[in-house]
Design goal:
A ten-stranded mixed beta sheet has the order 2-1-3-24-23-4-15-22-20-21, sandwiched between helices. The protein is built from 26 helices and 24 strands. It is α/β, with parallel strands linked by helices. α10 runs antiparallel to α12 and α22 (652-669) crosses α23 (674-689). The mean pLDDT is 95.
């Protein structure tokens, strides 16, 4: 038996719908794994868990918990790592504040989140909370590059059962709007370091020099970028697009990644809120400041702060009446695109809009053409090219479409997603310089107050690993393979200098193409429209964007993607898909006790994890389990056992019953391991004979409100009661 102190497989404890599903599914996994001598343990990387772990001094010994994220961060650097990583909350400030308030109400004496820290104590508290915000988890765990694709069974099912696609028309008014200059894309500079170096980032102004960041270290061969977005140019762009939207008669929508880009994008989001309510801020700016309004937190927080001020509320209503209609998150509840920065996440919102034929939901509850405002022009061309392609060619046909797989450079906080510690809102006009320890000025920008400056990097070893991964994947598939790199963009030009020699040395340069994102998007859409396949070899942000865009078009969801991270030191990290729709799923469960979350991503990851373990620890039984997982997953698809969206119909818990049954039946039927076959034969028999009772018990649980004991920090006993309502199934699984 394995050492349970170091489980063979780590299954992460996360948030929202994926974590609720785990309450039902994990006991099944542990029951089946134990038969093969495989231990499956958990590590808590949930938002609530990370908050609790960050403030042990404020809590009782019983409330304290270990820093599981830090522990996992060390584990993924070892060959022993075998981690199944479910989607977790990348917290915006409103989400973080809400989680803290919930924990406080549960008796955790946590400090409040200081919106505007004044004292040294408040600044220290804020610094701790800032380590939890945004994408705090993924950069720690992703010590390898990404291989994301639709599993063969999932792709075949999508082709055999094509989902509904919205109709595209050539005269659609939907478009993408981006800044034409003075954004991150146009101001980017990049250099590759010949030797290891330590840098400091300083702001030189008329009043002196301020050190923004010191001691930033880079190994030799690191590609180091710096850029900034002009606040004045951003404001002018937003004001212009609001007016253009009104003239065109479309919906105004802003598409950002305020969860992942946790420093820069909330600031840009705040500029949009101020642009939308510009007359209100001009007239009542001092009063709004006095009320503690922070536009970066969105319209929702602003309206809550001013709700008792009739004069300001009247001014807001007047301005809103003069604005174009806004793209809505929830028109029934009046939740707008600008309400909360984490509500509209570009990699989920843009593919959904494109899949719907370019339509967004307006405040009247109807669909309409939309102005998709994406201020920075770095990746906006992907969405612009997609929209123009479908205007010209009509909607994609999922029944005949090929697939776009993705290999993403993401290891060791590569590119923009690693820029959080080196992103600054400039307090005073001057010059930002990145200065190496030998005195060399690596990068320099003239900036004005309010500009957003940031630096990012990509290390040599992950880049080389990424190219080798691409070479191996192309050889295995023979698919058209494209590096999405723009030779006219500073960072990409540095990568191209590294990519080409590696391909040439391997003798495979003729098997790869290098295209800018706009051209690569068009080429990929043309390829899959013909029913052929392609591999997109991309940087970190495009990895994130494309592994939602193409799966949502091909499969209707990105939650069903197979996501394998081959950790650079030999371990494995298996990700289970996207979590963008998880909040709505939780709301439905709380109201109706129906969870429509689809665990297909977990099924795919589980099979890969078992097979990896078989090689990792020479465990033949684990391979048998993994092969049977694939059979069970195919059974879920072939027999349409995935969750329904509507209350009263089968949900996530039903799919877990069927998965357990198909898994047990596959294990009982296989001939590679007689002991496992004998062990699972009675379990398969019990699951089959208990079908009527189990299905009935699961159905009886639906229809009324479900009490989880919390949203961010649920009560384990209450959650288990909700997610495991079948006494018959529980008796079999234990």
């Amino acid at each position: 038996m394995s050492d349970t102190n170091t489980p063979d497989i780590i299954y992460t404890k996360v948030d929202e719908a994926p974590e609720l599903a785990s309450a039902s599914f994990l006991p099944i996994i542990q029951k089946f794994a134990a038969a093969a001598g495989v231990s499956v343990g958990t590590k808590d990387i949930s938002l609530a868990g990370r908050i609790i772990a960050t403030f042990p001094e404020a809590l009782t010994p019983e409330q304290q918990q270990s820093d599981d994220l830090a522990a996992l961060g060390e584990l993924v650097k070892t060959p022993q790592a075998n981690v199944i990583k479910l989607p977790n909350i990348s917290a915006s400030v409103p989400q973080l504040v809400a989680a803290v308030k919930e924990l406080q109400a549960q008796g955790f004496a946590l400090p409040d989140y200081p919106e505007t820290p004044a004292t040294d104590e408040e600044k220290a508290i804020r610094a701790k909370y800032d380590t939890i915000k945004g994408s705090a988890v993924n950069p720690v765990l992703r010590e390898g590059n990404s291989d994301r694709r639709a599993a063969a069974a999932v792709k075949k099912f999508a082709q055999d059962n094509p989902h509904r696609m919205g109709e595209w028309v050539s005269d659609s008014k939907t478009r993408v709007a981006s800044m034409s200059g003075n954004d991150f894309r146009s101001n980017e500079v990049s250099a590759t370091l010949d030797a290891a170096a330590t840098a400091k980032i300083v702001l030189e102004t008329a009043s002196g020099e301020t050190v923004l960041k010191d001691g930033v270290s880079y190994p030799a061969g690191t590609v180091v970028d710096a850029t900034f977005m002009s606040a004045k140019a951003l404001d002018a762009f937003l004001a212009e697009e609001i007016e253009k939207t009104k003239e065109e008669g479309t919906l105004f929508s802003l598409h950002m990644k305020a969860t992942m880009m946790k420093v820069s994008d909330p600031i840009i989001f705040g500029h949009a809120v101020k642009a939308w309510l510009a007359p209100v801020f001009e007239q009542y700016g001092e009063k709004l400041d006095a009320l503690g309004v922070n536009p970066n937190g969105g319209l929702g927080g602003l309206l809550e702060k001013v709700k008792d001020d009739a004069e300001i509320m009247a001014a807001i209503e007047k301005v809103t009446a003069e604005r174009p209609p806004m793209y809505m998150v929830d028109s029934d509840r009046g939740i707008t695109n600008l309400h909360v920065p984490s509500d509209v996440i570009i990699d989920a919102s843009m593919p959904a809009l494109i899949r719907a034929g370019g339509k967004g939901w307006g405040p009247d509850g109807r669909e309409a053409d939309t102005n998709c405002v994406i201020p920075d022009n770095s990746y906006a061309p992907v969405y612009d090219a997609s929209i123009e392609f479908f205007k010209k060619n009509g909607k994609l046909n999922p029944a005949t479409a090929g697939t776009v797989q993705n290999l993403g450079l993401m290891a060791q906080k590569a590119e923009e997603y690693g820029s959080h510690p080196t992103t600054f809102e400039i307090p005073e006009a001057g010059t930002v310089k990145m200065i190496l320890d030998d005195g060399t000025v690596l990068h320099s920008h003239s900036v004005e107050a309010g500009d957003i400056w940031r630096s990012a990097s990509a290390r040599k070893a992950p880049i080389e690993d990424w190219v080798q991964l691409a070479i191996a994947r192309q050889k295995a598939t023979g698919y058209r393979s494209i590096f999405w790199l723009d030779e006219t963009r500073a960072h990409d030009a540095e990568l191209i200098k590294m990519v080409k020699p590696i391909l040439e040395a391997a003798g495979v340069a003729d098997k790869f193409e290098i295209m800018a994102p706009r051209e690569a998007t068009i080429a990929s859409l043309e390829t899959i429209t013909k029913g052929e396949n392609t591999i997109a070899i991309t940087g970190n942000v495009l990895r994130d964007y494309l592994t939602d865009l193409f799966p949502i078009l091909e499969l209707a969801t990105s939650a069903k993607m197979l996501s394998i991270v081959k950790l650079m030191n030999g371990g494995g990290l298996f990700e289970t898909g996207a979590g963008g729709s998880a909040p709505k799923h939780v709301q439905q469960l709380q109201q109706e006790n129906h969870l429509r979350w689809d665990s297909l991503g977990e099924f795919c990851a589980l099979g890969e994890s078992f097979k990896f373990l078989a090689d990792q620890k020479d465990n033949a039984k684990a391979r048998v389990l993994g092969d049977a997982v694939e059979t069970a997953t195919q059974g879920i698809l072939d027999n349409d056992r995935s969750p329904s969206r509507k209350v009263g119909e089968p949900d996530n818990r039903d799919s877990h019953y069927w998965f357990a049954r198909y898994w047990a039946e596959a294990l009982a039927a296989q001939s590679d391991d007689a002991d496992l076959a004998a062990h699972f034969a009675p379990i398969a028999k019990a699951l089959a004979e208990g079908e009527a009772a189990i299905v009935s018990e699961l159905a009886a649980a639906q229809g009324s409100a479900a009490d989880l004991g919390g949203y961010y920090h649920t009560d384990p006993a209450k959650t288990a009661s909700v997610m495991r309502p079948s006494a018959t199934l529980n008796a079999i699984i234990g």
